[in-house]
Amino acid sequence: MASAEAHLEVEALPHISEGDMNEIRAALEKGDLTAAATKAQEILANEEQIQLHIAVTGESGSGKSSFVNAMRGLQDHEEGAAEIGVMETTMECSPYPHPQDSHVTVWDLPGIGAPKFRPDTYLKQVQFDRYDFFIIISSSRFTCNAATLAKEIQARGKHFYFVRSKVDQDVSNERRLYDEEGVLKAKGKQATETRPQQYDEMAVLASIRQDCERKLARLGIRSPQVFLVCRDDFSMMYDGPRLLQTLLDDLPSQKKLSFLRCLDNTSREVVRQKKKELMKYVWLKSLVVWSIRCSHPWFLYCR
Ligand SMILES: Nc1nc2c(ncn2[C@@H]2O[C@H](COP(=O)(O)OP(=O)(O)OP(=O)(O)O)[C@@H](O)[C@H]2O)c(=O)[nH]1
Ligand SMILES: [Mg+2]
């Protein structure tokens, strides 16, 4: 087992606890391959139990169910997708397992202001403890309800993320003020810092982001960060990729692989992290397979 021992570096095998690593190392040093493989199997079995629950909440009609579908890589009309619509549609907490990893569940929560849900008891009613983190969605400026909810989530020690949805609509509304060459149409109106003479999508997005963040700061949220998304091409457009990367970075190490399995290989960073996480599994599974092979009579005979 010289080669296995040579790779017993915590850096090379992330997210195996030091205690587990020491147990495997001690077993290998004693030449007890069966004990090392048993430990490896135990770690793999524990990983199978890990669940990740993502809560999607926000104002009624803000695009929560559409966001749930986008997170799961589904079109709204596809089988298993959450129901969406311009009428109030989500009245219960509905779990949607991710098609690429059933350990990850995206929960579609009722709107913060939905009739059956009072702002002061909302988190209790939706069973706060169930979720790992919260996505708070708004399709316009964030309201007092959203800020109160965020503060309550923070006070209870969990992460939340502000997501400004339907940003494609804002972009196309703003674009209408410019002609085909992208020059501001409005006659007699001066270009401003937020509405330059020449159309600039980045400037439009930056001003929406700043506006939302300023409003949240006024509502008492310290250093708010807002992610602008659109349900179409969610993982590729606007702040979708940055949001997914932030969620991944903030997750505790043992939950990262499940979330990574749900992400498409759209960035080098995602591919790099998948590779790093999978190394652990390759190594643990190899240890188990090697132990089985070594105990096989055929192997003993060959030695
Ligand atoms: N243009 C655009 N429309 C969107 C987007 N996201 C959602 N919508 C539309 O907004 C409407 C409401 O979307 P839902 O996802 O049902 O909103 P919800 O927050 O789940 O609504 P309730 O369950 O009633 O609270 C639907 O017509 C969606 O198609 C988006 O990113 N862009
Ligand atoms: Mg809904």
From TrEMBL:
Residues 50-250 form the IRG-type G domain. Keywords: GTP-binding, Hydrolase, Nucleotide-binding. It comes from the Eukaryota. Belongs to the TRAFAC class dynamin-like GTPase superfamily. IRG family. This is Interferon-inducible GTPase 5-like. It comes from Apteryx mantelli.
